[in-house]
Amino acid sequence: MPYNIIWLQEAREDMEELYNFYAEKSIRSATRIYNEILEEADILIYHPNVAAIEQLLNGFTKTYRSLVVSKGKYKLVYTMENNTIYIIRVWNCNQNPEKLIVE
After folding, report:
1. Which of 43, 62, 68, 90 lies at a C-alpha separation of 20 to 30 Å from 55?
2. Closest listed residue to residue 34, CA positions, set 4, 94, 76, 79
3. Antiparallel, parallel or unpaired: β 4-7 and 84-92
4. pTM for this prediction
5. CATH of residue 32
6. Confidence bin at 68 (pLDDT 50/70/90)
7. What is the pLDDT at residue 103?
């Protein structure tokens, strides 16, 4: 059964920030990267457990997973409930991992 994907506010803001960062250099590149991430997220519709459990977020009330996208530059951090995937962050892998705390 396919899952629904919902992009939470912080994830949408992350995508907007990512797009704006690349758009300063090239609108074309920004659009390509943005669309690639959206397309890569679609794998979760049919394979929601494909991504590893995010070890940095163990111990919270929910289980969080991270799907590595955009050639390893970003992670889509998400949780699942019923048949819905909630993407909570688009995480730049170059950031300090301790900043990833979400709850």
Report:
1. 43
2. 76
3. parallel
4. 0.87
5. 3.30.2310.20
6. very high
7. 44
